[in-house]
Specification:
Elements: E1 2-3, E2 44-45, E3 88-95, H1 102-112, E4 117-120, H2 122-127, H3 129-138, E5 141-143, H4 156-174, E6 181-182, H5 191-198, E7 203-204, E8 209-210, H6 223-232, E9 238-243, H7 253-267, E10 271-272
Parallel strand pairs: 1-2, 3-4, 3-9, 3-10, 4-5, 6-7, 8-9
Helix pairs in contact: 1-7, 4-5, 6-7
Length: about 280
Amino acid sequence: MIRTTRLLAPLLACAVLSACGAAAPSGVVTGGAAPSMPETTASPIDDSPPPAPPATPAATRTTPPSSSTPPAALAGPEWTRLPTTAKVVALTFDAGGNNAGVASILATLAQEKVPATFFLTGRWTEVYPADARRIAATCTVGNHTQTHPHLTALSDAQVAAEVTQGEQSIRSATGRSPRPLFRFPYGDSNARVLADVQSLGYGGIRWTVDTLGWEGRGAGQTAGSVVARAVGAATPGEIVLMHAGSAQDGTTLDADALSRVIAGLRGRGYDFVSVAAFTAAG
């Protein structure tokens, strides 16, 4: 997902496979802003928060990756929609920047009794462990790597380290496993790295529509534009990409628009599901 921002002040800031299943604008741990990419090839920025202590570079991690296979339904290309003709939508949130929208998002999901899926970076769970536990208590969680790098720029061993370390951090913080759901940072993937993550038991979950809430008001987005994009793209199996953090300008448009997104989709006859509800399909 393509987007990069700086966190404001440090730390100012649905059960795996349970009820509750882009990139976010916040501070990156590795530097410069990433260029925007089409929604079909990359997601908005959702970089890891800088307050965390420096992580051991992926290239030097020694934790051996474990081999596995994802469910058959996830063994092929990344999903851009759920494999269904039913009028259902999966709301997904990437968490790799800050936690500015988490409280509001979880409150709205609980009030509306809507499931969602959160893709967490390991570093984010280390910086915001309480929020990670709150998310995992009611929502499905997926793996978004440890430090949110461009995986296509890494070796196979480095990709494996990012995925396995992310899984370990998520398990440590939440007591939940993120398998088999994986989302590529920046939406940056190719056949090689997809095969890498699938060998570790994960399948790629992309999206049908990116709300662009991560761009913020400074880029011309509003809560109304978030609603219009999410509701306007309504289709059976729609996967909506939103973010748990704030935009570079500090706005939380996805969180602000969430209740209206839910109402708009319900008004069109759609119900809500977690991504995990479909991973055994096929």
